[in-house]
Amino acid sequence: MKNTPDAARIVSAWLHAWNMRCCPPDAVLAGSGGPELEAHLDICPLCRQTRADGLPPMDIGLEAADLAGRQIPRAGELWSLAGALAGWGPKCRYYNPPVVLVTGLEDDGAVSVVQTFGDPVLAGPGDILFENHITGFAEPWNRYTVREGDLELFLGRVSEKWLSSVTDGMETPVSAVEPGSLLWFFRHMEVETGWYFASQAIAGLLNGEDAGVLCSLDPASLARDLGRLPLILPDGVADGSMPTLLAHTMPADDLLPHAAADRKQEETWILKFIVSRGRIRDVQVVPAMVTLQAEEDGVMRVSGHCDPQQVATGEWLFRWQSAHWSVSPLAGQYGVDNGVFWAAFSVDGLADPSQGELVIRVLVTE
After folding, report:
1. Nearest to 302 by CA among 276, 256, 266
2. pLDDT digits over 344-354, tens only?
């Protein structure tokens, strides 16, 4: 590749793309590590340098609309895939959830999607640039199937005309790119990213699994089920959504491991709900420790750890919350890895965001 301004832009865009798609979040990168992290550090100079410098990795910078009560996607909508699906995978990579465009729905809970990317510098043959205020492009050649429950945060909608150009592109042969070029490597990485998330969805659909524990809950019975347990329910929930109701439900004093007045500032707890056949049957309190809470440029970043054996599997819900507001995480900016958890929240415009606290709920099936 020639040393030109355009070439430099492509190299920079490629490094950013690698970081977004393949590198672990800062809470995992800064942790004590394990064989997966050590293997990744062996192949990734970006993460080695970031770990040495103590600097946070780049993130997608995409803020999600807080529409937690919405569960039925529609064609033409942009969603981020669920953070709970992220994790270590092939080629020593940490697979972070991409933003996808919904192109169709099936009766069995399957959703057809096209992967998207946010930097138009890496657009090539067959890609469709977003219109209006959205930066980036759709990849009609990179389409796959996910479950409805895999779509977590609704981010916006495209026009019918633009959606038609994408669906038309799905049927159009794509010109080959130069083998060994950065665009060639980028497209292989995009396909491998899609495969990682699609394989989880297909396995679940073939096994008849629910799209997600939260989606399996019976909304009509949720408040009644919670009321039978040693919990304190809120007087009312503004948006009426199940995630918000769970986030505002608090444990009764006799459920906590020790009195709240004795709790150290860095100590917290996680409410673990036991779900069976769409109903919450039991609740447990899992002790946890917050090791980082920092606000910068309108973003609150929080991380910590808990006993991984107590929450080895489950669907995690995060909120940054006070008595006056409750904020969902930024798209793709939260997750869990072997008991280490992290989340980032947009707190622009909130009154005294430092007075909030991290709220975590985990739903597990029997």
Report:
1. 266
2. 888 888 878 88
- Residue 36 placed within a domain: no
Which residues contact residue 295 at a Cβ distance below 8 angstroms, ignoring those fewer than 6 apart? 301, 347, 353, 354
Structure tokens at 321: 């919350």
Q: What is the largest CA-CA distance in the chain?
A: 68
Distance CA 180, CA 118 (A): 22
The tokens of 107 are what? Answer: 């009766």
Q: What are phi and psi of 265, to 5 degrees?
A: -60, -40
Q: Map residue 102 onto helix, strand or coil.
A: strand
Choose one of 206, 241, 263: the last residue of a domain: 206
Assess whether 74 and 200 both reside in one domain.
yes
- Beta-strand pair 340-346/299-306: antiparallel
Q: CA-CA distance, 207 to 73, in Å (whole number)?
A: 22
Whether residues 197 and 240 fall in one domain:
no
Is residue 32 included in any domain, yes or no? no
The pTM for the full model equals 0.62
Its domain, for residue 299, covers: 213-365
What would the pLDDT profile of 70-81 be if each residue is shown by its tens digit?
457 999 999 999
